[in-house]
Amino acid sequence: MQDKLWYKEPPNFWDEGLPIGNGRLAAMVWGDEEKDVLTLNNEWLWRGVNRNRDNEYCADMLQEIRNLLKKKDYFKATALANAFMGGKGGVSGITGRVDAYQPAGELEFKINSLKKYKCRSLDVIHGIAECDRSTDDGEVHSSFMAHLGYNNIICHWSGVFSGELRYSRAEDKGANGKLYVEKDKIEFDCKFDGGIEFKTCVRIKTDGITEVDGNGFIIRNATELTAYINIVTEVKGIDEELKMYPAPHEVSFEEIVSSQEKLFSDMMSSFDLQIEAEESCLSTSERIQAVKNGENDILLPLLYFNYSRYLLISCSACGDLPANLQGKWNNLICPPWECDYHFDINLQMNYWAAEELNLSNCVEALLKYAESFMEHGRKAARDLYGCRGIYLPIQTDAWGRSTPESYGWAAWIGAAPWIAQHFWKHYLYTGNIEFLKDRAYPFFKEVALFYEDYLVEDDNGVMQIMPSQSPENRFEGTGCFPVSIGISSAMDVQLAYDAFGYAIKSAEILGIDRKCAAKWSRLQGKLPEFKIGNDGRLLEWDEEKVEIEPGHRHVSHLYGLYPGDIFNEYSRTNQYKAAIKSFNCRMAQGGGHTGWSRAWSACICAKIGDKDSFWLHINEMIREFATVSLLDLHPPRIFQIDGNLGASAAIVESISQYWGGKLHLLRALPKAWNTGKIKGYRVPGGHSVNFVWIDGKAEQIEITIGFENQLIVNYNGKDYLASGTPGEKVVLKF
After folding, report:
1. Rounded to an integer, what distance in angstroms lies between the CA atom of residue 153 and that of residue 202?
2. Which of 105, 297, 458, 491 has its CA 20 to 30 A from that of 700?
3. For 218-239, b where at least 16 C-beta lie within 10 A, e where not — what string?
4. 614-663, pLDDT tens digit by residue?
């Protein structure tokens, strides 16, 4: 059963619960033997205390930092860059200004006269979590969903039961909350000191006897209870949002379930991956434990993959904001890293596979979020670096403020060009010219303008990036700082190369800005070369430097290998081989020691065709970095969703991947997945691909032609050409 998580026992912790969400609203469904607990979230529920923060002007310090870098005084350059461009918080001990993502509270239903806890499950195809219990009065069935249509969280209990339904929110000295309970409603109004206001509304419908009691209801002799939950904030207007998403209390629960199943399964079924193997009869927790004990479970990674797609939809389908570090799920007033957005890998990783997995609509939240920084990002570029164009921060929250807020890490200008990759990808997969003209190209142009002013020409005519860093790594000579500031790190050069490329290609497609494109082409051609060290590794910095952490969790300098496509078997083959050697050395020194880092490692292994290492990394993610509900963990035990979503990119990459202008099939197919099929895989050019493989071999591929009229397919080292008109189905035989 690879589309359902199920358990015989209740969760022990919040992160062992079952997440439901629709993008705007989310809840973690957990509890214990007697009670169901929903920890509630709204995507816009950030404290808001620092939503108007700004930068002080410090661009006049840039030249002094550059002078220090030219003298190779990296310690002073790093110190000065952090003092003026590094923000607050982090290793400085100063409280940062990134707002924390907040829980709205918890709704709990305690069922009386429990006799036996039976099971719980999450159907990832239909987006519904369920639980079954026995009481002295009979069977009780619970259902939970974040409805994609009604945009409410809906809970339903059926059977014969009595119990207590209560709402609460954890103690929070910086919040002023008032709870109202009357007849069939619970309302909680709350305002953060100096921040935003929000409201949680719970409306109930039951055939039982209800009695208002403190922070909820006592319910007796019911056969049915439905709770409709809405959470709204002042960001969109509390009254306006309540009117926009009323509780569907006049709709039967059967109709609610039917519509949710249809809406959610329509999104999930846009892509399908199946593997032929014997199904396990064990519960999900038993399967995970067996893997931890060293046993093989061929299909558990497939469940992990389907669950990852479910999580992406649940984070993004109806949302304005993209998935944060924990998707849309958080239970803490003070969560790790504020449960925020990190632009130096984590946010991008969340959406690496969205286009390929036929979930382009989920990418919209990411693109809208990046665009929300445009106005303040221009001001930040001027204030911090004296440049035109746009600057995006390394760490941030919901408010679109481009302020560096992580001293020690934040003196970095690569966030905007990295996120630009997703604008370019969205165009490549959809072919939407209006999107390219009105949204993507304006973003590319801002990034290119920044580089125009930021690049420094050296005595040899090379355009250097300075200051520069390789997130989040360091070399000897920069003291206790967690990240070293230098000149033209490999990642910064690769990002600049790609960013200029997006702008140049877009201008050509649109037939505009020829002089600008020519200038960008000249600058791109004068960027530093992609250097290889004396030991054959791709250099991480501009010259040979001693790494403090040879097994660092980041492999930022390998961006050009994955998720980029600067280095491959056809293009810059020397750098391609050097990147692989660099990666293998990093792994040999203990790299990949977090969940998201394992996911990145698995992606790279799939890209280079190392099927055994890919399979190892994917299984190690489950063995070392997964809760019983398969949520990805960052040591010591912090839920981070990027590992889940990054793993989906690695898994699909092992079977079907696009680079060098060609679609490559079964490049890193693990031996355990010898027979299977894939449907709905998307390719640049707008093509859709279906194929079956048996005993590790594909006999043919079916391609639905997209907006471009041809696709080159590479299989077993041989190229095959598919051509046709948009919508035409073409079959290639191997």
Report:
1. 9
2. 297
3. bbeebeebbbbbbbbbbbeebe
4. 999 999 999 999 999 999 999 999 999 999 999 999 999 999 999 999 99
